[in-house]
Amino acid sequence: MKKPNSYQSLRLVAQELNTALSKSVELFIYSYDQCRTIDMQDGLTAQQLIAFEALTARFARLSDLLIQKAFRMIDQLELEETGSILDRLNRAEKRRLIDDADQMRSIRFLRNRIAHEYVSDALHHIFTQVLHLAPVLKETADRTTAYLAKHTLT
């Protein structure tokens, strides 16, 4: 039996990442579907707050998987230097994984706010932004999983 070369090993890791990405999207969409019908005008119940906290955590995790792992993995598969996050986003835009690098920068910025926000008054704004950007994040994840699947088949 032949020992896999480093490119074959990289492709196997990319396939595992694609599986993790698909599962992350599934959980993210479950939370999004729960939250998108909630009216936040009169405040949130404890149960609704828990649902939104799950959604924001899954939004942050999915954006990290895409930007920090998947886009970097695609660069490695295509023998590109990974560079900065902005470099990765620009290449993802050229590959048509995303429509707009600036929009993904907004998602990254929102992910950072989610991770570091402690003021409850700002949570309503964060929840609103997550609901607004969720379809973009899902579309990006769908395109990325399709791209990875196409480029990692043996």
Structure notes:
- Helix 1 packs across helix 5 (120-152) and helix 2 packs across helix 4 (101-116).
- The two termini are 16 Å apart.
- The relative contact order is 0.16.
- The chain has five helices and no strands.
- With 154 residues, the chain is mostly helical.
Helix and strand topology:
Blueprint: H1 6-35, H2 46-77, H3 85-94, H4 101-116, H5 120-152
Characterize the largest beta sheet: strand count, sense, and whether it forms a barrel: none
Helix content: over 70%
Distance between the termini: 16 Å
Q: Which structural class fits the helix and strand makeup?
A: mainly alpha
Q: Cα-atom Rg, whole angstroms?
A: 17 Å
Strand and helix order: HHHHH
How many strands in all?
0
User: What is the overall pLDDT average?
Assistant: 89
Strand content: under 5%
Q: What is the global morphology?
A: elongated
Which regions are unreliable across 5 or more consecutive residues at pLDDT < 50?
Answer: none
